[in-house]
């Protein structure tokens, strides 16, 4: 008889109450896979949409990321017992994800690291920093001295992007929908903070154009984010904090500003040949956080048995930072 493990399953589509802890077979790794004993995992907005049946792909055992130790690695890419982070590579989408006691992850989506940080703090790093680094430097090609607008900057991805952009020598303008969070964004290095609102190009930043724009709000501000980008600049959309509704009656010929490079990024491509994890300095990022240079601590930590409470906090949109679940 095969071994079993506990895992959180999406039993049907709906609210947090549809998440159930069940016994399922423990996965067995094959060549070029790494079996991770999960110590903790981050909770992400995509998992909320999967739970509701609003995502294009989903697995009953969701979870886009995790941290833990290597239990088995048939092809030998990572030593047994090593501390690792696993991120995407189909996790929670077309294969079981990190919401279990163990998870099989493609070796290309596993990164070994060294750190003495507690697991719950490490779990706040993989998806957020891998995505924000890829957005800023692989796609936007952000350079020292450039101006960058980060919309949705108090989200976990937004805060990581501010840290990385400031560290690279860029001048950051950040947005948030809450006045009381202005000081936090200034404290982590934003040169200017604006109230997040529709038609920002006609209000808070009227007449101002940026070299690069990172839009984490989504389709509702897509066109105005393009307008806020200088000719020859780049605008990247990588979040949907404002919802998944498409741009209504979209007519690019009439509505899009000429000469702006517009791209989309989704973390599902992390670890692919085009976006290898080896190109992201994750050990350096972990070390900076461990030294206290950046604060990446989760704002909410839940025990595994309290997964529904974690998703209730996620649904509230008031987490103020990363939600983590630990074993």
The DSSP helix count reads: 9
Helical residues, percent: 10-25%
* Structural class by SSE content: alpha/beta
Oligomer: single chain
- Poorly predicted ranges (pLDDT <50, ≥5 residues)? none
Give an account of the 3D structure.
The chain has 327 residues and is of the alpha/beta class. Helix content is 23%, strand content 27%. It has nine helices and 15 strands. The protein has helices spanning 45-52, 119-122, 126-139, 156-167, 182-187, 222-227, 252-255, 282-291, 307-316, and strands at 4-10, 19-25, 33-43, 65-72, 83-87, 102-106, 110-112, 147-151, 171-176, 192-195, 210-215, 229-237, 261-264, 300-303, 323-326. The strands form three sheets. Strands 3, 4, 5, 6, 7, 14 and 15 form a seven-stranded mixed beta sheet that branches. A six-stranded parallel beta sheet has the order 10-9-8-11-12-13. A two-stranded antiparallel sheet has the order 1-2. Helix 3 crosses helix 4. It starts with a strand and ends with a strand.
Topology, pairings included?
Blueprint (H helix, E strand, L loop, with lengths): L3 E7 L8 E7 L7 E11 L1 H8 L12 E8 L10 E5 L14 E5 L3 E3 L6 H4 L3 H14 L7 E5 L4 H12 L3 E6 L5 H6 L4 E4 L14 E6 L6 H6 L1 E9 L14 H4 L5 E4 L17 H10 L8 E4 L3 H10 L6 E4 L1
Parallel strand pairs: 8-9, 8-11, 9-10, 11-12, 12-13, 14-15
Antiparallel strand pairs: 1-2, 3-4, 3-6, 3-15, 4-5, 5-7
Helix pairs in contact: 3-4
Relevant terms:
single chain; 327 residues; alpha/beta; seven-stranded mixed sheet; 15 strands; 23% helix; globular
């Amino acid at each position: 008889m095969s071994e079993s493990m506990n895992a959180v399953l999406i039993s049907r589509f709906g609210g947090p109450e549809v998440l159930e802890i069940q016994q399922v077979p423990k996965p067995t790794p094959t060549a070029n896979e790494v079996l991770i004993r999960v110590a903790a995992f981050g909770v992400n907005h995509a998992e909320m949409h999967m739970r509701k049946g609003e995502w294009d792909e989903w697995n009953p055992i969701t979870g886009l990321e995790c941290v833990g130790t290597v239990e088995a690695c048939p092809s030998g890419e990572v030593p047994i017992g090593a501390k690792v982070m696993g991120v995407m590579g189909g996790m929670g989408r077309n294969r079981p994800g990190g919401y279990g006691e163990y998870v099989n992850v493609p070796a290309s989506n596993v990164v070994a690291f060294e750190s003495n940080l507690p697991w719950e703090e490490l779990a706040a790093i993989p998806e957020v920093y891998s995505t924000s680094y890829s957005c800023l430097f692989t796609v936007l090609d952000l350079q020292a001295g450039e101006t960058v607008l980060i919309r949705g900057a108090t989200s976990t991805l937004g805060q990581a992007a501010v840290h990385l952009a400031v560290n690279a020598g860029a001048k950051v303008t950040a947005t948030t929908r809450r006045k009381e969070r202005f000081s936090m964004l200034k404290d982590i290095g934003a040169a200017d903070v604006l109230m997040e609102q529709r038609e920002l190009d006609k209000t808070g930043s009227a007449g101002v154009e940026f070299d690069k724009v990172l839009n984490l709000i989504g389709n509702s501000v897509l066109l105005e984010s393009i307008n806020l980008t200088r000719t020859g600049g780049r605008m990247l959309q990588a979040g949907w904090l404002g919802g998944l509704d498409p741009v209504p009656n979209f007519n690019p010929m009439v509505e899009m500003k000429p000469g702006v490079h517009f791209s989309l990024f989704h973390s599902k491509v992390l670890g692919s040949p085009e976006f290898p994890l080896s190109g992201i300095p994750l050990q350096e990022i972990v070390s900076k956080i461990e030294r206290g240079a950046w604060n990446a601590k989760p704002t909410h930590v839940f025990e595994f048995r309290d997964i529904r409470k974690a998703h209730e906090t996620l649904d509230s949109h008031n987490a103020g930072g990363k939600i983590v679940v630990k074993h």
